[in-house]
């Protein structure tokens, strides 16, 4: 078995606990890596060995029952994935799977009753070890429960795919193992109880005491645990429907999802031993596959690099923000107001051209607060406070004491310059002036101002509350204090911020527009819309190109394209057909289908491409553009490109964002003469 010298070992600590009503003590095993909740418990080889030894010690004590729990706030979040890159042979991957199965099975096969007291987050192997116990309680304070492996190119490899469907049925298991990971959802404690994952739900304050008392009741026979009979007649139909949904969404691009489906099907009839042996083989195949390696690279970007942005000035330079001004009161501005209000909890004021618009913007914010209260996602006390902090006015002087002013008006450079010229006379010389522009030059916007050094790009992605990326753009004269303040504000907003050079359309929009440009060049050449729309399917992107165009809006896409055409006319070609769509004002999609009225508008060329040819042109365009962006210093490294595409464009983990895929497919070397990532960074094959 491979050892991980960097493993933070989660130790399994055994203590005997006397429980009222029982003659024998209970053996309580606590998982604890000795660190706080910010460094969760996980299972590496040494951690599994410690658990194995603890189960032996607990069993030898002949207790009334054995219970497994975690340190404060954390039960266990699964396998220690820091050791995954060290696995360089299939045999090592098989050994890892077999080790976990052997240790966990001791809880399932124990003649002494076993309980899992899930006191905190339980993900992946953490939930799987709980599933092996005979009974489970869960705390109302447990932050998240789930089996997220499919999202990182793996499968529940320590029994989850076999135990869960036989515990709660195929529909619930398919939701937890497939649907939730692919939609970035987890189970909450109440839902886990309702679905049958947990047998009892207890309040966090007295969770351990209540769990011990409940377990004693089960052992004595005073408490009966009833579990519904599994409907096996619907098993195959449920998985057939799940496969249809996967094919429609992922188009076969995610091997882990297909493997998970196969294992769920196997669980219907197979013995537990045969099912878990199949899990081990599937896990080994996936661990050694490109998609899993790229997924682990993506996971590392999101968990580590996103929290430590590169090139940021020291945070000691950041200025305190006590009031926020937002120029504009439209939908984007109102979304920003709500975000700043919830996270910073300082006065936020909206301004616009007339009182009707201002009132509408403020009303949107208060309505959203009311909805959060109704959904019990915000208490009434906090809501009352926030309602008192939001205001609006047509009088620009209300911004006089604002420390941070952000504009979210129409993408027009002259308009934005005019706005800053007006507000610079009102706000203090130290106030930060941030623009939510999606493509315009920060440097040009600040030109002519008395203090251009305090202008910074602050580019959010729509919907603001959902997408975590924030591109922070440094203009040529933006100073360190402004930049440090911007990053501290971004952190408080709970966004993942990436430092970007002031270059046309920055990162995400520049790359997405390059793909759109290549696709519409194919349309102009005569390729039908339905062909270009499926061209990217083998990549498993979150949206097809025409659906994405509908979401962004053809007019917005065309406007960004114009900006990039002016900057790089040889690469970003203006499409007459896209212009026709914009001028017609028709939706490109109707009822999830391409609008036939839009198809009638198009001029048909005489050199149509196949879907494969369209996809390769788009990938070639991405490779060329990324290399140019790195050469220009738009971001520090290729990893920042990938982080932006994952968090801002929803590019999937199994691609590693984009550069690992371009490397392993050979596109990067063929187009640019070199790979984007050094050998070993994403562990993808040449």
From TrEMBL:
3-hydroxyacyl-CoA dehydrogenase NAD binding domain boundaries: 323-502
Chloroplast listed as a keyword: no
Pathway listed: Lipid metabolism; fatty acid beta-oxidation; Lipid metabolism; butanoate metabolism
Pfam families membership: 3HCDH, 3HCDH_N, ECH_1
Key words, A-Z: Fatty acid metabolism, Lipid degradation, Lipid metabolism, Lyase, Multifunctional enzyme, NAD, Oxidoreductase
Gene3D superfamilies to which the protein is assigned, alphabetical: 1.10.1040.50, 2-enoyl-CoA Hydratase, Chain A, domain 1, NAD(P)-binding Rossmann-like Domain
Catalytic activity annotation: a (3S)-3-hydroxyacyl-CoA + NAD(+) = a 3-oxoacyl-CoA + NADH + H(+)
Gene Ontology molecular function: enoyl-CoA hydratase activity; long-chain (3S)-3-hydroxyacyl-CoA dehydrogenase (NAD+) activity; NAD+ binding
Start and end residues of each 3-hydroxyacyl-CoA dehydrogenase C-terminal domain: 506-585
GO biological process, any: fatty acid beta-oxidation
Protein family membership: In the central section; belongs to the 3-hydroxyacyl-CoA dehydrogenase family. Belongs to the 3-hydroxyacyl-CoA dehydrogenase family.
Stated name of the protein: Enoyl-CoA hydratase/isomerase family protein
